Amino acid sequence: MCGSRPVRPPVRATHGARMDILFAASEIAPIVKVGGLADVVSSLSKALRLLGHKVTIALPRYRALDSSGLMMARRLTPMPLEVDPQIAPGPIPVTLFDGRLSTGVELVVLDVPGFHDRSGIYGEDGRDYEDNARRFSLFSRAVVELVRQRARSGSPFDIVHAHDWPTAMVAYLLRHQQSVPGRTVLTLHNVAHQGLFPKETLPYLGLDDDHFRPDRLEFYSQLNFLKGGILAADALTTVSTTYANEILTPKQGERLDGVLRTRASQLTGIVNGIDYAVWNPMTDPAIIARYDAEDVSNKGRCKSALLQEIGLEIRPDRPLLVSIGRVVAQKGSDLLASAMPKILKGDVSVVVAGEGDPELMAKLTAAAAKAPERAKFLGGVSEAVVHRLMAAADLVVVPSRFEPCGLVQLYAQRYGAAPIACRTGGLVDTIVDLDAALETGTGFLFDKPTATSLLGGVQRALGALTSPRWPAVQRRIMRLDLGWDRPARRYVQVYRQTLAS
Fold first, then answer.
1. For residues 481 and 378, what is the distance between their CA atoms, to the nearest angstrom?
2. To 5 degrees, how large is the angle CA 17–CA 19–CA 25?
3. What are the backbone dihedrals phi and psi of residue 375, each rounded to the nearest 5 degrees, phi first?
4. Which of 41, 178, 280, 342 is the most buried (most CB within 10 A)?
């Protein structure tokens, strides 16, 4: 569908050699974060660095970076970005800042004047910024210019790894600008978010109308950033094996399934990991008492402290059900709100944290208010509170209607809380449904995204908590290998195959 795909010679890195990898991303944890994308960019780059590769992350210069305490050095000479005269009378001077994360990963922050110095990443107060098309078009072009400059210096990047729609056009621009060498990988973190914009965005990308056609960027009379990246990248990855199959179907492909099927042979599903330096109940500075799989007794202390902190009745013997995530329909927030009255008929405490759709937040607030001594909707919370919620929880519900991978269930398992989740996407790949005897399994799966099915999963889990076998289940869950080493090695495989093609 992409028209002619130019044959490019293999690049310099060979099997076993140290690679020079550029991440193009719009988020990085914990500094600028909306969701799991930020965690993956931060932890995967660190894991690749630990495997001996050089990794640089290119980010827009958000206001939050300036207040993060991160040391950055401003380059003396701005990078000129040539643009159409209708955008600016001359080149846009992009200022570059260099920094280094504590993980050893390099950081290049690109300041496109007037477009990223804001309090939000994609928007504020639940609304996207109206100029997101221009913001991420110009940022993508600045990344391409950065790649070009490195190539001219004689030390090109081996791999340019773009993440989701905000940087998908980096792969497209590199494909269609033959003077810029390099192999590209695009990771699809969530195909539901595609970057759909009007045709008038083309000049900001430095592209003419020839690119607005069905075999390139045109998508139902709009311009689609993610589609461009899918068609142009040398390799595609997504964040679980099940989701890799789901996005090839009309339902989960979000109308891009046909495009994705043309690239299916270049698509690899790699389940996300978690960073054990950040998510580890044995060393976590955010929780009141440490514990591990061999001795979980301090988990009760963590529960009591959390209940006191948020103003609920302190009953460490009572099961605590926690839900954490964006409050949106995709995450099943409405299902949880509908099921909560019946869940709370049992002797259980329920805590929900997250922000998003105001109407759904109001429903969760109202549901919790019916049992104020045992239930609470916290709204948005800090990362430290998320850690304390995980350490306190007996069960963590993840009722997503679809979930490319999900990280909440992995955090739950690491902290000895059994996840309860809908049977979809990466939740299937990371949770083995517990059998009736509790001899196998790592969580609870329910079959349909309905409040009734969710309630059934919760009731089954509450019943399992009373079994004398539950401590063995908890130890089994906590001993799972959830780290980034294996996923990072699979990414290295994808990189090497891409370089050899």
1. 31
2. 160
3. -140, 145
4. 41
